[in-house]
Amino acid sequence: MSLDTIPVVDLGPLLTGDAASQHEVARQFGEALETCGFASIVNHGVDASLIKRMYAEAECFFAGPLADKLAWTPPEQTKGRGYLPVGIESVAATLAGETPPDLCEALVFASLQRERAGQGLPNIWPTEPPRLGETVNAWFDAMYALCQRLMRLSAVALQLPDDYFAASYREPSLTLRFVNYPDQPDAPCAGQLRYGAHHDYGGLTILRPDQAPGGLQVCSLDGQWRDVGAPADAFVINVGDLMARWTNDRWRSTLHRVVNPPRTLTGSTRRLSLVAFTGPSCDTEVACLPSCCSSEQPPRYTPVAAGAYIRAKLDQSMQLSTPAADSLPAHATNRSTRSC
């Protein structure tokens, strides 16, 4: 697998094509997720002006002073919402035990559908930049719509009725994670990466990367790490553990990481990624799909509850040596005054 063999799938026929064209898109999408677990999608229907605006708002937030950003850190010190500073997590710990913390910071929003209905734990909403909340809500709606299209496409690709996943994804587990990988003026510790080697935990991950150095790599079947590139207007889609379990490993949850930029580079190497982690609603039982098992290929995994599986992975990835919750500023009373 190399840059040239990460498939690019054109979703245009889903909106305008006939049934035969739509089934061909589903075939290409399914083949990509079977062979390498990754695909780039173009003509995806997400408005280009919204993408530009979301990037700008996220960049403005991360450009602020650390003290301002820490005001929006959740008191429970989890990955589920709010601002996560550098050093608070290590995703490679889900596979390799204790590892150096990842060299990234993030702003996380989860389950906006439930929040809008007054259910569950509310998200933490920074007040600066002023239009951040408005843009995040629009971005959530766009990612929700794209997720619905991808799950209909997935059902067809897996030889299931196109509405097979509709009930499980009516109120999906959809988490937005805006990830900033800062410049690295000092050399990382041994084995420390921007984001350590890991498998995603949920259904399909939707990633909008940028073109900065020090980016995404995937581990091929022969154990070699390969760079992943995508067309400038594309999203990158990859398979998470729950989808792999659902498909009996027919679709691959591929090991991947975000590497450090070369130390020889001059100028800024900051990188920003817009990520949407999607999955079924928390109470969904993920058991082998009927089209993915047979007497010759019995189910490999016992059924799991989607929410419990994700929570266990999130807990495992959090660093234990983070600041105590009472040492952080109270986000309810601390407000940033900077502007962009």
TrEMBL record:
Pathway: Alkene biosynthesis; ethylene biosynthesis via 2-oxoglutarate. Keywords: Ethylene biosynthesis, Iron, Metal-binding, Oxidoreductase. GO terms for biological process: ethylene biosynthetic process. It holds the Pfam family DIOX_N. PROSITE patterns: FE2OG_OXY. Residues 172-280 form the Fe2OG dioxygenase domain. Residues 321-340 are annotated as: Disordered. InterPro entries: DIOX_N, IPNS-like_FE2OG_OXY, IPNS-like_sf, Iron_ascorbate_oxido_reductase, Oxoglu/Fe-dep_dioxygenase_dom. Its EC number is 1.13.12.19, 1.14.20.7. Signal peptide: none annotated. Its cofactor is Fe(2+). It catalyses: 2-oxoglutarate + O2 + 2 H(+) = ethene + 3 CO2 + H2O; L-arginine + 2-oxoglutarate + O2 = guanidine + L-glutamate 5-semialdehyde + succinate + CO2. GO terms for molecular function: 2-oxoglutarate oxygenase/decarboxylase (ethylene-forming) activity; metal ion binding. It comes from the Bacteria. Monomer. Belongs to the iron/ascorbate-dependent oxidoreductase family. This is 2-oxoglutarate-dependent ethylene/succinate-forming enzyme. It comes from Stutzerimonas stutzeri.
